[in-house]
Amino acid sequence: MNLLTALAARARAAAHPRAGAAGCACDTPAPLADRPDATVVRHAGTVAKAHAPGTDPAELSLRLATAARLPDVLLAPLAPAPAPLHDRLVTLWPYGTPVDPGDPDAAPWEAAATLLARLHRTPPLGALPAMRGPAKAARAVGRLHEALRTAPHGRLHEALRTAPHAAARPVLRAWAALPAWARGEAPMPGPTALCHGDLHLGQLVRHPVPDGSWRLIDVDDLGTGVPAWDLARPAAWYACGLLPPGEWDRFLTAYRRASGPAVPPDGDPWSALDVPARALTVQTAALAIAKALAARRPLDEVQQALIDACARMTSVRRRLTSGFPD
Questions:
Q1: Which end of the chain is more exposed for a tag (fewer CB within 10 A), N or C?
Q2: 190: domain range?
Q3: Domain stops at, among 61, 79, 95
Q4: CATH label of the domain that carries residue 296
Q5: Residue 10: CA atoms inside 13 Å, Cβ hemisphere, count?
Q6: What percent of the chain has pLDDT over 70?
Q7: Long-range contact list for 200-205, CB < 8 A, 24+ apart?
Q8: Can you tell me the distance from the alpha carbon of 202 to that of 196, in angstroms, rounded to the nearest whole number?
Q9: Are residues 15 and 112 in the same domain?
Q10: Distances from the Cα of 165 to the Cα of 116, 170, 280, angstroms
């Protein structure tokens, strides 16, 4: 039995704890994600997630305990500890209604910011591990290096509009210009806080379905670290021109109103956001190039905008602001 089939069986059993699968009239369990780092299956109101190979069970248990402790911020797990399945660890969760990607005007920026502020103000539980944002950025750059090493030549380079090595050059320069902590090569500077580690709108659901309160999901990168990292993705999108100023203002204003500690309570927030926003821009650009190479397809306009932003980061020694340095 392969992982996806076994995970579907685990989700079905959890959804029907008394009767098991016998007499189940539910639809076939639906895969929500099937990637090397996560396989997720839904059955009725239950979601089963197989975490990345090599996930530390003690660290994942601490992260689950934190989610259970903060059910008004993080979606609470259905079981207090992960269970083994094949070579993976599996956790069980209630299903929540995700953000509708087809309705950008309804994006819950205020809810996301308020939840982050509450998370950042919460004392960490026990010896929680470090937030994995910088490590995740480093893995993205490592993936870019591997993609460049194995990339075919000739027509593929032409299809990418520019040779992959040329597209990667500003991304790698911007990466090298970041401080060691943002590259996952040194401890994060203080003061630290409890952080999500991978905030984007796909990490929010309404629970209970269909229109309950918003909750943050995905505890894989949860830990202690620089709280500005959790604001870095929308900050980077705003700086690249991919997030409208009005939506960025809604997010930042809501975070400040909720007394979030990642940025000053008023005035210029970029003294805190500059480094994390640069790191998230590099991470996203690195993955864009790696995926384009793997799929043998050209970079789209959004991906090229991220690469251009990386070029601007190192062309002028100025702090990152809206639109990046001129």
A1: C
A2: 97-326
A3: 95
A4: 3.90.1200.10
A5: 28
A6: 90
A7: 200/233, 201/99, 201/101, 201/107, 201/108, 201/112, 202/98, 202/99, 204/98, 204/99, 204/108, 204/111, 204/112, 204/115, 205/75, 205/95, 205/96, 205/97, 205/98, 205/99
A8: 13
A9: no
A10: 37, 9, 20
For residue 238, what are its two tokens? 């705003």
- pTM of this structure: 0.92
Task: Report cis status (omega within 30 of 0) of the bond before 191.
Answer: yes
Give, as one character, the DSSP assignment of residue 104.
Answer: G
**Encoding tokens for residue 34?**
């099937």
Instruction: Mention every residue, 6+ apart, whose C-beta is less than 8 A from residue 97.
Output: 205, 206, 207, 209, 210, 211, 212
Residues 45 and 165 both lie in one domain: no
Instruction: Render pLDDT for 226-285 as a digit per residue (tens, 0 to 9).
Output: 999 999 999 999 999 999 999 999 999 999 999 999 999 999 999 999 999 999 999 999
If asked whether residues 25 and 109 sit together in one domain, one would say no
Does 262 lie in the same domain as 133? yes
* Predicted local distance difference test score (pLDDT) of residue 159: 42
Q: Summarize pLDDT for 192-228 with one digit per residue, the tens.
A: 999 999 999 999 999 999 999 999 999 999 999 999 9
For the chain, the domain total comes to: 2
First CA to last CA across the chain, in angstroms? Answer: 55
Q: Write phi, then psi, for 317 (nearest 5 degrees).
A: -85, 75
